Amino acid sequence: MSTLNSAQEAVDTVANQAIYAALQQTFAVGGAIINNASGEVIAALHNNVLMPFPGGGTTYFLPHDPTAHGERQLVDWYFENAQPLNLPPPNQLTVVTTLDPCAMCAGSLLTAGFNVAVSAIDDYAGINYNSQFTFPSLPPQVRQQAQNTWGYYAIAAPVSRAWQGSNSPVFAGQTIDSAAYFLTSSIFSASVNTVREASNNSGLPPDQLQNPANLPANSKVRQALTALSPFALTVQSANPRDPGAELAPPLLKTAQQSPVFNSVALIDPFGNLLVCLGGAENQSPIRTAFMETTRNYAVMRWTLMNDPDPAVRAEAGQYLTHPKYGTFVFLYAPDPTTPQAVMTFGAYGSTMEGAVPQSYPSNLQYVLLPGNTTAQALSELAQNLPPFYTQSVQVAPAQVLSQDLINAVKNGV
Ligand SMILES: [Zn+2]
Fold first, then answer.
1. Tens of pLDDT, residues 352-384
2. CMP/dCMP-type deaminase domain spans which residues (predicted)?
3. Which of 42, 55, 211, 351 is the residue whose CA sits 20 to 30 A from 340?
4. Cβ atoms of 337 and 328 closer than 8 Å
């Protein structure tokens, strides 16, 4: 990998990644991990939310992994490779990115403890959406961490933006030219609406879907669901937005087998449990139960929708819902004082990528709150998120309605 000598070179490097993303027709954002001491580029990646199937077909199902933003992937890449590559700790590295991180990526980067340096601002979904470096969406302690470790490169005339941030990121205080800034900003703007629409509109509405509980044992869709989660299609709730005690055993048994005692279920519009997964925090601290659930469901759906067999593609399209028509149920809600909570609500927003059909109760539910927190604190975190999450997605966490489910879980915890 190359060694860089300036903020200009760093932004040029990540801008190239954003160009690769634009050519792939996904969100045009790129990032890199750079060693503060040496300027070495340790890893460079771009967004992979939409992805064509490698080596196959003429028509693709593109929505691949709603969490595959450049920064989130870089954080997981780091924890996969830190030991084998003997990498320095995150506080000696900087994630340089073309675009201000979204809530999911900001939460991921702050959980991991990287320094961050940014070119363009995203005034809709970016964590610094007000350009003030005040981070109103972050919990107070986390806000301080961001102010201590992040920065926004200065931009030369004619844009003329002053450096904003701490001395911690690589090339802190340096200036990039207006051309690099405009490339990183406009390439994202050109991509964002089409990618959001492709993500938000991928799948049949519930009245056209068929019930996967009726799939035969030899169905590839059923087999893929069961391979992902042994509880898939074993539980059905009468009302998909009001799961009862039947959901307690999958949530509890999954949590018991996970490194952190938690799990998240996805229920489809027929009330079927589609997937219930725990986290993989022993591999990466950002691989929480929600991240694993939404990501693995999406990748499974993408894989089936691009299957070489057209009958499998058709079956997947007829039976597998977009998560916006489903219900996510957390065993434990995230702790609203942590960056993981910002990441979690951000990842929920990225999973929806737009309006969610409004219904009562919300399709973002939890059975229990972690100790020392309140439903109000959790709601406040959601209400303070950048405009995309409050105005478009309308993130609204709510406790499950069923006291039977709450009691069944409490008895098993
Ligand atoms: Zn992001």
1. 999 998 778 899 999 999 998 999 999 999 999
2. 9-146
3. 42
4. no
